[in-house]
Amino acid sequence: MLLGGLRYLLPVIEAAHRHGIHVITVDYLPDNIAHRYSDEYHNVSIIDKEAVLALARELQIDGIMSFAVDPGVVSAAYVAEQMGLPFQCSYESACVLQDKSRFRHFLAENGFNVPNARGYDNADAAMRDVDYFNWPVIVKPVDSAGSKGVTRVDDPAALPAAIAHALECSPSRHFIVEDFLEKAGHSSGIECFAVDGEARYNAFYDQIFDNEAINPYTPSGELWPSAMAEAKQYELKSELERLFKLLGVRSGIFNVECRVCTNGKAYLMEVSPRAGGNRLAEILNHAADVDIIDNEVRQAVGLPLTNVHEPNYRGHFAIIVLHGEKAGTFVSLDIDPAFEREHVIERDLWVHPGDRVSAFTGANQSLGTLFLRFDTREQLETVLNHPSSFILIAVQ
């Protein structure tokens, strides 16, 4: 059973079918693309864990996954625990990881590097705590992904508006306020595959952002391998494994957001028992020599894992998240032909000329993705520093 119906699930469905596995997709949006490729679809909300469990028991499923679909992670963990199925961690651990406020508290209690942070369900309580924080601060929903509802606040007078925005994007109507951590170099992440609680595969990546976008905290691309210093990568991997031990992690894929800050400290910002969005696992199957999608399917149904080790890269790779700078009508995507022949390994455009598109306020407003390959990091950065010389998105 796959929770959700986004296009991120298509390679999972393909991998499952290679193993002869019957695939059931579940969500409340019957027009989602993944339902066209699964063997069976059921209209059930993936955030209703009891309804998902009832359906799973009725269908006698052998495995469940919420691959790159953040809202379904807690339900998937709950169903797996109730039915004795494989999952990355326990239901309780998933609840800790999926709630930013609980996660920050857990990190602080166990001696991890963590910013000052507090969770709230109303603006008045947060306003009473303005002196607790080292300004500026970041305001986020505790339970949303893709940078939806995230605002940097430099002045306490702007805090109520940021809180209102976060609450609009929070299914539970809870938000977190935390110190803004000034990064050194890139914001970073890890697409990690754990085996029996060991962080066996760690694909560190650098995030890039479009400072002209309405939400400058939504990643507009990712780069491999990361430019992060090896010593900091080792430190973060060690802290990730310590976290896995405390949470009783088993096997499976995790998406991690992390950063090294100007204070010299390395931070685990978010750790989720699912694949990352923006098709991270897909490009890694091009970029390196481990098939983490196939292994995630295997672990979900109890098949033996194969060839899980640190990635060996075949060059320098990037995902470019195609997006419009404004809301309007999509006109065209134009890519320099020579650049496309040499560097584009996959072009996936999700809109058509004449479609209405939204401004880039979150990952769900993407127009598509480009997978790029280069021989050197210098080539890659030349393109990223001047993307409009090679790639032009027209929105009227």
Can you describe what's shown?
The mean pLDDT is 94. Helix 1 links the parallel strand 1 and strand 2. The protein has an 8-stranded antiparallel sheet with strand order 12-11-8-9-10-13-17-15, sandwiched between helices. Strands 4-7-5-6 form a 4-stranded antiparallel sheet. A 3-stranded parallel sheet has the order 1-2-3, with no helix packed on it. It folds into 3 domains: 84 residues, Rossmann fold, CATH 3.40.50; 64 residues, ATP-grasp fold, A domain (Dna Ligase, domain 1, 2-Layer Sandwich), CATH 3.30.1490; 208 residues, ATP-grasp fold, B domain (D-amino Acid Aminotransferase, Chain A, domain 1, 2-Layer Sandwich), CATH 3.30.470.20. It is built from 12 helices and 18 strands. Helix 2 packs across helix 3 and helix 4 packs across helix 5. It has 396 residues and is of the alpha+beta class.
